[in-house]
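Hi everyone,

Forwarding the result from last night's run.
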Amino acid sequence: MKWTCPRCGFVYEWPENEESHRSTGGVHCPIGLGGCGYHDKLDGAPVEPIDPEKLDRDCNNCDKPIVIRTHRDKNGHRTGLAAGDVVVLTSAVESFAKFDPRRTICVDTMFPEIFANNPHVTRTVPDDHRVVHADYDLIQRSNQEPLHFIDAYCHQLKLKAIAPRRRSAFRSFFNRPYLYLSDEERATKPPVDGPFWIMSTGTSALTNKQWPVEHYQTLRNLTADRIQWIQTGEGPRINGALDLRGQTTLRDFIVLTSQASGAVGPSTLLQHLMAAWQKPYCLLLGGREPVSWTAYPLQHTFHTIGRIGCCFQNACWKSRVVELPDRAEQNGSLCEMPVADFRRWQKPHPRCMGMITPEEVACVISRIA
C-alpha cells in the first residue's frame, strides 16, 4: 500500500499484509526517512498546516554551520574513510552547497588535500557548529535498490543537516565527484609527452578487488602500439609502463589523473578521480559490488554478476581472497571462490576477477582511446 503525505508530499509504502497503521490510528509521515512527521488519522479530516518553527525544533540546530567528519576516534585509534570514499563525498558536499549556499561547510578529514581549492569548504572550524558524520548506511540496501555511493552520502546529510520541512527538496544534484585545481597545478608538466593512460595494479587491504597481475601485463602488451601506460598502486612491476608506484603524494596523484586520457583498475581512488575529471575509466568490478553503486557516466564496467553462483543475484561485498597476517577484521570476510594457484599466478585473486579477460578490456580501450 502506498500513502502520500497530504502535507509535505512524502510517499510511504508498506507491504500489503502490514496493517500496523490500523492499530496506531493512522500513519505518521516518517521523519527518519525524510518526511515531515505529520500524523494522518486517515479519517478524511482537514489537514493541519505545517508549523515551520516546530519542525525546525525537531531537527535541532539544522541552520548552524556544519562540520562533516570522515573519521572516528575509538580507544585511542583513529579510523576513517579511505581516500577514494572521501573523493565521492565531494559530490554530496557540492549538492549541499547548491541546496543551501548560506550554510558554512567544513570537512574534518584525514585527507584535507582532496578539498584543497574547493570554494564551498572552509578550513576554519566554526565556533558554533553541528557535526555530521559522513556515514553511508544505505550501503546495506545496495543489493536491493539501484543506489549509488553518492546517494548514500546525500541521504545522510538530508537526515542530519537539513530541517524536516526542507528534506523532500534535497537530493543528489550531481553524478560525479568534484575537485578543484590551482593555477599552478593546471600548469604542471605531465610525466610523459603525449597522451597517456594509468593502470592501478594494487588493492591494499581489500584483496578481493585484485585483477590478476598477469592480465595487467597482457593488457599493456595488447595496447602498447597506441597507448603510453603509467603504473600506480601497490602491485608488482608491469614491464613497459612508466613506474610511478609510491612516488606521488595524494595531491600529485590528483593532478596526474587530471592530465591522463583514461585509466584502468578496480573500484578504488583512481576510479573516483577519473570520474571527477570526466575521463574514461575501465572499471574491473567482478562480482564484489553492485553495478549501480559504482556507476559513472564515462565509465565502462566489467562485472560478473549473474555469471557464477556466489554473485548470481547479488554482489558479495567480500573483503579478501585469502587471510593476511595482519589479523584485520577483513580476514573474516573471504571470497567463496578464490584462485590461488601460485604455479600460474603471482597473487591470489577472486574467480570473478579472473573471468574478466585482458582481451575484452583491450577491445573497449581500442574504441575510446
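Confidence is low (pLDDT under 50) at residues 17-24.

Cheers,
N.
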